[in-house]
Amino acid sequence: MAGLRLLSALILGAVFGFGLAISGMLDPARVRGFLDIAGNWDPSLGFVLAGAVLVAGLGRLVQTRLSHPLLSDRFHLPEKTQIDARLITGAAIFGIGWGMAGLCPGPAVADLMLGAPAVLVFVPAMIVGMLLHDRLAADGTC
Amino acid sequence: MSAYLPSLVGGMLIGLSVALFMVLNGRVAGISGIVAGLFRKPDERLAANLLFVAGLLAGPVLYHAMWGDWPIFRPEGGLFLFGAAGLLVGFGSRLGSGCTSGHGVAGLARLSPRSIAAVATFLATAIVTVFVMGLAS
């Protein structure tokens, strides 16, 4: 079962990355075009999000009918329920960076394969930002 | 409308990955958490996280194998901007417990109030950021 679980992680990572590539979301200009509601608005990201949430929602329906995952012994769902200052501050900071570059973690990692200097700077900086948080500001639950 | 079909289909594949990662492995396919997990003290999640990232990297290669060209990548801004943005995205995604995949796809699919609040917040600050940068340029 552990072998299948690992194989599924590889395949599902590839499905995610291939989906990103098809969707156009590996292109920072397309992402920023969606965020540019006052300018030349590009709705593409809205279609990506709608398609993704729809299918992930069907997965959620399946998940709620299972007592445990098919390849593992239990579901690991987020335990926090409180909308707190950490959540909102973190999301706000994340959004500023996302808007500046047009890159978020998934597309940025996949974009490494394209070798553009912008991504080769962005991804190490993103990892430094993550480590800075985990060293300085972690509350021990994430 | 058909111009957006690839975006819809690509999004559905992303959703499929998130759905099956939960149904099969029991975990949220949140990329910020998976990437940060590569740099934590190794635990039982490390191997699956590494393989998921390897698969993610294979995505553009599969695209190239299928269509012969690489996905379009058009950066807007200099390297300093991308470095600063990377720091904010990394720090913010950890402080806010997720990014566009964990909150935006998996969280919205669960109708999680925390994820709905996070998505509304990062969409708002991202839109304002793009707007202000447009004014400045």
From TrEMBL, chain A:
<protein>
    <recommendedName>
        <fullName>YeeE/YedE family protein</fullName>
    </recommendedName>
</protein>
<dbReference type="InterPro" id="IPR046513">
    <property type="entry name" value="DUF6691"/>
</dbReference>
<keyword id="KW-1133">Transmembrane helix</keyword>
<feature type="transmembrane region" description="Helical">
    <location>
        <begin position="83"/>
        <end position="101"/>
    </location>
</feature>
<dbReference type="Pfam" id="PF20398">
    <property type="entry name" value="DUF6691"/>
</dbReference>
<feature type="transmembrane region" description="Helical">
    <location>
        <begin position="45"/>
        <end position="62"/>
    </location>
</feature>
<keyword id="KW-0472">Membrane</keyword>
<keyword id="KW-0812">Transmembrane</keyword>
<feature type="transmembrane region" description="Helical">
    <location>
        <begin position="113"/>
        <end position="132"/>
    </location>
</feature>
TrEMBL record, chain B:
<dbReference type="GO" id="GO:0005886">
    <property type="term" value="C:plasma membrane"/>
</dbReference>
<feature type="transmembrane region" description="Helical">
    <location>
        <begin position="46"/>
        <end position="66"/>
    </location>
</feature>
<keyword id="KW-0813">Transport</keyword>
<feature type="transmembrane region" description="Helical">
    <location>
        <begin position="78"/>
        <end position="95"/>
    </location>
</feature>
<keyword id="KW-1003">Cell membrane</keyword>
<dbReference type="Pfam" id="PF04143">
    <property type="entry name" value="Sulf_transp"/>
</dbReference>
<keyword id="KW-0472">Membrane</keyword>
<keyword id="KW-1133">Transmembrane helix</keyword>
<comment type="similarity">
    <text>Belongs to the TsuA/YedE (TC 9.B.102) family.</text>
</comment>
<feature type="transmembrane region" description="Helical">
    <location>
        <begin position="116"/>
        <end position="136"/>
    </location>
</feature>
<keyword id="KW-0812">Transmembrane</keyword>
<feature type="transmembrane region" description="Helical">
    <location>
        <begin position="12"/>
        <end position="39"/>
    </location>
</feature>
<protein>
    <submittedName>
        <fullName>Uncharacterized protein</fullName>
    </submittedName>
</protein>
<keyword id="KW-0997">Cell inner membrane</keyword>
<dbReference type="InterPro" id="IPR007272">
    <property type="entry name" value="Sulf_transp_TsuA/YedE"/>
</dbReference>
